[in-house]
Amino acid sequence: MATAEKGVVLLDAWVSPFGQRCRIALAEKAVEYEYSEQNLADKSPLLLKVNPIHKKIPVLIHDGKPVCESLIIVQYIDEVWTKNPLLPSDPYERAKARFWADFVDKKVYECGTKLWKLKGEAQQEAKKEMIEILKLLEGELGDKKYFGGEIFGFVDVALVPFTAWFYAYETCANFSVEAECPKLVAWSKGCMERESVAKSLHDPHKVYEFVCFLKKKFGME
Amino acid sequence: MLTSKATSDPRLPSNIFLHSNFRENTERMAGDLELKLLGSWASPFAMRARIALNLKGVGYELLKEVSGTKSELLLKSNPVYKKIPVLIHHGKPICESMIIVQYIDEVWAAAGPSILPSDPYERAIARFWIVYIDDKWFPSSLRTLRGLNEEAKAEAEEQLANALPLLEDAFPKCSKGKDFFGGETIGYLDIALGCYLGWIKAIEKMTGIKALDEAKTPTLVGWAERFCSGDAVKEVMPEADELIEFTKLIQAIMNAAPGRQNMHVSKNDR
């Protein structure tokens, strides 16, 4: 497949919450694109060519030009396809949205990984940390329908894919997100009513199966 | 070279960090702009915000955070990370250096040349390199300073050896033949990378590692000279020798008081 072709291609992997951010953004903007499932255990020449530095998905290829890093891709999508903006128009609100999306990026995935990789005391520490992270996010959400207010926005896109991982986190580390952060769970259910989200996210039990597979693979059973 | 107005009272080491050698003419009263920046002279991240404000010709009040302590205002304005820089505009805080720079670019869009590229693809490329620089590069440079042992030196040398040729290669594509990554004027990626130049020179002097090498990355050497001599930059870029003294002081304090865990060489906000 030549990369100089016109059109939009997304190099991705089914379970990736980072890839899902891009799928959701593209769906929100009603952009037609080709989804290309990548085998990360045996990386394709195309992937190595378009993301030589990190060799990771997702990569968005637009008219042959690659864009890497999920939040950078989401911003690019928002700036090119300007219908239904994901970022508000006020500069201060935009700065806040960028801050919280960046917070999700810095904290959620890494802490989540610790929840299923670690055991004992270390896992308990990670659980405390995750609950703190989720409470901070819930505080920022407040009583709003979305992080973006009435509009499903940048922070919502950044965070919602991880909600499919809540069941896996809860089961591995023995806690309940709903008990700790009921508003956040209510928000995630509201997001699932959007077609873009419902079609992009996987069943939490499937995600948990995948985590169990990873645990076996890394000898953590 | 350091002519600090060091305190006459050795029991107050924190005064040393407010030394007067640092050019202070950026500290202007904000007037009715109500614009304050919580920062410190040594922080490359605070420098990013200051360069952006200088590019737009915007006055602000610099509130200096003293290394090793966190003011009430800082804790209140950035409760999540408790780190500088924080821009406070009409009482509202903005955190994270590159988010601050973009905010400045958007609010004062008419006041000076655009800091971010206008083309979405060019913006994506600039953002990509900024994430790369902040994630991969600076943390390892800091380790060199903290460690100052052979292993840390070797690791930092490797990181720099990998990172800089990539940026050297990216420069012509971004600059399109002009002086800066951003084109004719200092832009988003210039600010993100250039803020480290004082520390790079300090690390070179302290470790003997040649980071910016005329032989290996001549384009970047030329760019660095142009960047550092820019009006918006030269008054806020610390001298390498000042940073070396600063590092030694921090090391001395850390060695003398091993229980003080909250000392940082510089506030890393990514």
From TrEMBL, chain A:
A single GO cellular-component term on record:
cytoplasm
> Which Pfam families does its entry note?
GST_C, GST_N
Q: What Gene Ontology molecular function terms does this protein carry?
A: glutathione transferase activity
Record EC number: 2.5.1.18
Tell me which domain of life the UniProt entry assigns to the organism this sequence originates from: Eukaryota
**UniProt-listed GO biological process terms:** glutathione metabolic process
Q: What family does this belong to?
A: Belongs to the GST superfamily.
Q: State its role.
A: Conjugation of reduced glutathione to a wide number of exogenous and endogenous hydrophobic electrophiles.
- In Swiss-Prot or TrEMBL terms, this protein is called Probable glutathione S-transferase GSTU1
In its UniProt entry, the species of origin is given as: Elaeis guineensis var. tenera
Automatic annotation (TrEMBL), chain B:
GO CC annotations, alphabetized: cytoplasm
| Molecular function as annotated in GO | glutathione transferase activity
Which residues are in the GST N-terminal domain? 33-112
Entry keyword set: Transferase
Q: What is the source species? A: Elaeis guineensis var. tenera (Oil palm)
What does the record give as EC number?
A: 2.5.1.18
Family label: Belongs to the GST superfamily. Tau family.
What does the record list as GO biological process? Answer: glutathione metabolic process; toxin catabolic process
Q: Which CDD domains match?
A: GST_C_Tau (cd03185), GST_N_Tau (cd03058)
What Gene3D superfamilies is this protein classified in?
A: 1.20.1050.10, Glutaredoxin
Instruction: Cite the GST C-terminal domain residue spans from the record.
Output: 119-256
Name of the gene this protein is made from: LOC105043364
Indicate the enzyme's highest-level EC class: transferase
Which protein, by its recorded name, is this? glutathione transferase
- Catalytic activity line of the entry: RX + glutathione = an S-substituted glutathione + a halide anion + H(+)
PROSITE patterns membership: GST_CTER (PS50405), GST_NTER (PS50404)
